[in-house]
Amino acid sequence: MAAPSRAALLGAGVRTPRVSRLRRQLELPPKAAEGAAALGLSTIENLLEHVPRARREARTVAALSAGETATVLVEVRSIAARPVRRRGMRPLVEATVADATGPMQATFFNQPWLAKRYEPGTRLVLHGKYEGRGRFRVGNHATTEEAAAAAEEVSHYAASEGLSSTQILALIAAQRPVLRDVLEPLPGRLRARLRLAGRGEALEAMHFGSGAQEVERGRERLAFDELLFVQLALLARRAREESGAAALALTGAPSLTARWLEHELPFALTADQLAAIAILREELAGERPAQRLLMGEVGSGKTVVALFAMLRAAEHGHQSALMAPTETLAEQHFATIQRLLGSESVTLALLTGSTPAARRSELLSRLASGECSLVVGTHALIEDSVRFRSLAVAVVDEQHRFGVRQRTALHGKAPEGRAPHVLHMTATPIPRTLALCEYGDLDQTRLHERPAGRRPASTHVVSGERERARAYERIAEELRAGRQAFVVCPLVEAGELEEGVESSAQARAATEEFERLRAGELRDFRLVLLHGQLGHREKQAAMAAFAAGEADVLVATTVIEVGIDVPNATVMLIENAERFGISQLHQLRGRVGRGEHESLCLLCGPKGSPRLTALARHDDGFELAEIDLRLRKEGELVGTRQSGTGNFQLARMPDDEALLMSARASAEALIDADPRLEQPEHALLADRLADLHGEIAAHPIAA
Ligand code: ADP
Ligand code: MG
Question: How many other C-beta atoms lie within 10 A of the C-beta of residue 161?
């Protein structure tokens, strides 16, 4: 499949697909039908759109190496069911199969009937694992006729219990002519400009293409669509919000903010912070509600930037709110803001789930009257009972932890008919490509620079008993010099962080480590324990003790990730560091190196781990995020917190960055010209967008 020329595309005859053929239901025997349903395949169109996960060359028997998962094309020589001797044993069928390079023993499990079905002489496609010494454990199988002739390359599909990859290939081969009826969602002009193959052709290339290049061309076209539709959904949402309520334009001359910037801030802003503030100043002056994502690592100084926006609201007599995902974070922001305000008197308040009822109701009335101009809080801020007189600026910290609904609720707090300017902050550095997919509806600003005085923690991978003993010595040295240390206990159960809850097993592990260290390596020092299963009071007490220097060592689970600021802490030791993801380790590490002293991060784990090596080498979170993305692609088992996107079927980041940029540019052009995709040439585009991401007019897509 060569790239069609512009002339060929423009001159191509009109093809009218027979949609009825696409929409026909699949007809399958009951078990296969169940398998198809489990894969979400009910129509012929679904089947044709079920693109292979991979294409692999069929291997020859002689070339197989032990442990390899492979597909082979073979002929059955002899076959027999092996009697089951014990209860609980799985019925086996063993066959001698061979290709031109030699024979091997193939084993089929749980399908005793195969002994009759695959008579000697039958040609088979087998997919499975070569166990060495002439033994092959069959996963999927089909006769070669079923699987579309003796291809040298075989497509592999996501399969299910009742429907194997090889069966899917056979079904698609049978429906191949219907590929001509596949709908082309892209307007002809766009296709011609970008020289894109037709969608049907691209699907055909992916299923049946000969050679990697052809398959890749098909994949690119389909990946383009995938990316384009995500960008269309994001930009359509953005366009919708912009065409909705206007924001309060903060156009007045700076008074409070000018004073604050000049006299109250105890430090000089970094160039990144200044640039962010300049952009915000301009944006807040417009009626178009700002929707900006401020990305910067922990300690990069986002709060200062956010506070500028909040004070801008205050100096216009309006209000602002900062919403954080946890009470601890809300309390910290509140403290930071109080400190940053210096001697400026701005009426501010803290509202969380544990604000006492009396204080809460007093605060609510001060918010409703406008007397309180700046509030920091948790989800408690978006409860119905919370009313603002005039909310102009909303700051949402760690935006990825908030659902769409909560964000919408926040919007509802602005005066009737107005939308707040919204600034989202995230400390999770996301690779550029993913940020564009995940937060492509927001303008983005990055704070790269470390504020002056921040030094990266020197990071080492600690492996083996001797290095570990040395690590505790180093910790002891620091402690004797009056510094403090963190010991972070590992994740115990898979998926702990994804669910955001810490398991009791992890709390137990932390407790054991605490006891062990207290009686062992660190017995000369004062240790405190912190984990998620402790009560609020106990957690506070542990953190307060550590912050006040009354404890030398904080043994903790990842709860400390949510932000302790103890500049005197100079060492962090992380147990089983390889169980964490890069970004999380980096974030944890950010808890040290916050003061004037050199700091140290000790990662206990295997020397060979590319993730730990990356952490030892790099300090820029954005750079680490890019490395993380590349490593993930290479299939390394990664620690828990996923970055949410990357859930593409065909697009691959960061490899497809150019494709993404092109999709983004095309989506921008389309939405600019036709924000609701109402023009007739965009009908199929709008249709498919609705199928994939919901109607433009309806809900925002789930981030
Ligand atoms: P973030 O919210 O990005 O984690 P913060 O805004 O809370 O970072 O800043 C972290 C700490 O660094 C705060 O104590 C803040 O006062 C300080 N800080 C922020 N910007 C600077 C700067 N430009 N120079 C020195 N210290 C800074
Ligand atoms: Mg902060």
Answer: 10
d(CA 628, CA 636): 10
| Single-letter code of the amino acid located at 255 | S
Shortest-distance Cα residue to atom 24 of ligand 1: 451
Residue 637's pLDDT is 34
Whether 196 has a pLDDT exceeding 70, the answer reads: yes
Q: What is the C-alpha separation between 40 and 85, in angstroms, rounded?
A: 39
**299 CB less than 6 Å from ligand 1?**
yes
Structure-token pair, residue 146: 């079923």
Residue owning the nearest CA to atom 19 of ligand 1: 301
pTM reported for the whole predicted model: 0.72
Q: Mean pLDDT across the chain, nearest whole number? A: 87
Q: How far apart are CA 23 and CA 46, in angstroms?
A: 9
Strand order in the sheet with 569-574: 458-462, 600-604, 569-574, 484-488, 553-556, 527-530
* 427 alpha-carbon distance from chain centroid: 14
Six-digit token pair at 326?
């946890």
Mutate to test the pocket of ligand 1, among 274, 307, 328, 336 (most ligand atoms within 8 A of CB): 336
According to the model, what pLDDT value does residue 654 have? 84
Tell me which residue has tokens 């109701």.
Answer: 361
pLDDT given at position 2: 67
Contacts 24+ apart (CB under 8 A), 515-518: 517/487, 517/553, 517/555
Residue nearest to atom 23 of ligand 1 (CA): 269
